[in-house]
Please model this.
Amino acid sequence: MSVSVVERPSPIASATGAESVPVDGLSARAPRPALVVAVLGFFVVTLDALVVNVALPAIRSDLGGGITGLQWVVDGYTLMFAALLLSAGALSDRIGARQAFGIGLSTFVAASAACGLAPQLGVLVLARLAQGAGAAVMLPASLALIRESYSNARQRARAIAIWSLGAAVASSAGPVVGGFLTLLSWRMIFFINLPVGLVALYLLTKVGRSPSRPAPFDWVGQCSAIVGMGALTYGLIEGGAEGFGAPLVLAALGVAMLAVIAFLVAEARGAHPIVPLELFRSRPVLVSVSVGFTFTIAFYGLVFLLSLYLQDVRGLSPLATGLAFVPMTGLTAFVTLVAPRAAARFGPRVPIALGQLLIVVGLLGVVVALALQAPVLLLAMLTIPVGFGSALAIPTITALLVSNVPAERAGTASGVLNTCRQLGGALAVALFGALVAHRETFVQGMQVSLVGAAVLLLVTTAASLELRGKGSYE
Model:
């Protein structure tokens, strides 16, 4: 399994002759402990984004709250995740990936315990915000650890595939684990993070200290990003509950627009932007970010709506709901490992475009099945292309992104990619929830949401076909 990637050495290292020399394809940093830590971190981050969906009806039954409250339980995590990922990527570069990962993981573990102990919905949402903050620091740091530890491009591509496998396993097991644990108590879905997190913290002590690169912090960029994302998400969620003509909703959407303008100005004129806009001059980077955004809208939007549909409309138990996701997620681990080989043979555009088209087929299949009130088993089988396509496309866009930025920008670039992915998830839950609330039936709102996601994927599929062949990894 290999990916044709041309190594881009650090300009500083090249100038000083300090570029590390790989031994048997591995850098002198003894990368295996770093890879295990990175995989565990990505595992729990992905698990928490998925496992909570199956438990939403149980949380509502115990703590109260309608569809709006459930949206905030999901988006409290993804919103803070997305908002802080931009600075978290820069933080990973500036204080060192190992140090940043330790801070993020400690925060995540403590917040998970707080989620499990939450006595009311408001406390749970606040704890989910803290969880998202910890996850935001962990994710780009985990990818940066791999980038630091593997100087050989082919070995790094394999390591990224294994790293992606951690998320694939979490995606596969998440709904089932969530359904099983919810039968005991929904609180167990958060307590499950504690042993995994503690093991990762122990293994982190075996990883060498990462180099730091001090630089000023972009306060304007980060604050405007938080305000913009928060206001937009608030406007969409509350618009579904109160109506989009409500004064507070209109004010929130207006604030979001102003914050986005402020963010773009700050990044264009700032001396040390958290999102260097020149990154987007690279077509591979732009395609990677766009595909990551639209994919997450489709995938997490489907998981959110289907979890509620199967329990509230079809009357399934949490465990049966989790099992219904097995066809979609069961093949992801295998396909994640195959994706780098496909990219090496055909170039990145084939797995990226094909993966998105498969997701479109799956989404439209679900739309038709909902209209026909198809059996749950058939509905579950129709989600298989979604899982297959996501596992084919996502590792490829990640490798494409990392291989098209200098080593010292790896944390920042991965932060941008994952910010767009998490923002896509947050907006999907907010917007799809609003569409469900404003349609005559839940099914109608779900169908409109999935068709909209499919259209977005067709747009990014067309963009990904503009990538060059194998040379796109260069």
Observations:
- The chain is about 80% helix and 0% strand.
- Residues 31-63 form the longest helix (33 residues).
- The radius of gyration is 21 Å.
